[in-house]
Amino acid sequence: MDDTNALHFAAQKGHSEVCRTLLDAGLSVNSKTRKGMNALHFAATGGHADVVTLLLRRKADPVSANKKGQTALQLAKNVATKEAIQKAMDEAAASTTSPKGDSTQQKERQHARKRSAQSDEPDKGGDAGKAEAGPQQAGPEDIGPQLPPKKAKVALTHLGDDDDEADQA
């Protein structure tokens, strides 16, 4: 298994209502597979602009890269999806600028845009762009939601009290 969860599958297939339900239930919007793919990557790859917009509104990280160093913007298959991601990146950059100038997040977003522009160019052979990205470290938020255990809603009275009878004997 690749650690692909229900949100990843729903995003990949463009099921925005399922994505909304899963996020409301507490699934992490930025959880990743072993290959570093998150729901935003899957939605962008599938060209599902409505799901991309939903995930970005739910704080999906638009500059998060998979293990190949690809961001959702680079994986986007159509103009509407690319525009939705770019708009979110621009809005986030505008809201994180400090009075002194560019913030760290804004610089990261600019770097991601440059990588995206480079990926749109034809490959000129070799692995020139791969060394720049580096491996991504997975944190607890990338593994999945930390939900409390749920109690069974079904009474197990049909199993009987064999243990209680043995204790009394």
TrEMBL record:
SUPFAM superfamilies: Ankyrin repeat. ANK repeats lie at residues 2-34, 35-67. The keyword Plastid does not apply. The lineage of its organism: Eukaryota, Viridiplantae, Chlorophyta, core chlorophytes, Trebouxiophyceae. SMART domains: ANK. Pfam families: Ank_2. Residues 117-130 have a biased composition (Basic and acidic residues). Residues 94-104 have a biased composition (Polar residues). PROSITE patterns: ANK_REP_REGION, ANK_REPEAT. It comes from the Eukaryota. Keywords: ANK repeat, Repeat. Residues 83-169 are annotated as: Disordered. This is Ankyrin repeat protein. Transmembrane segments: none annotated.
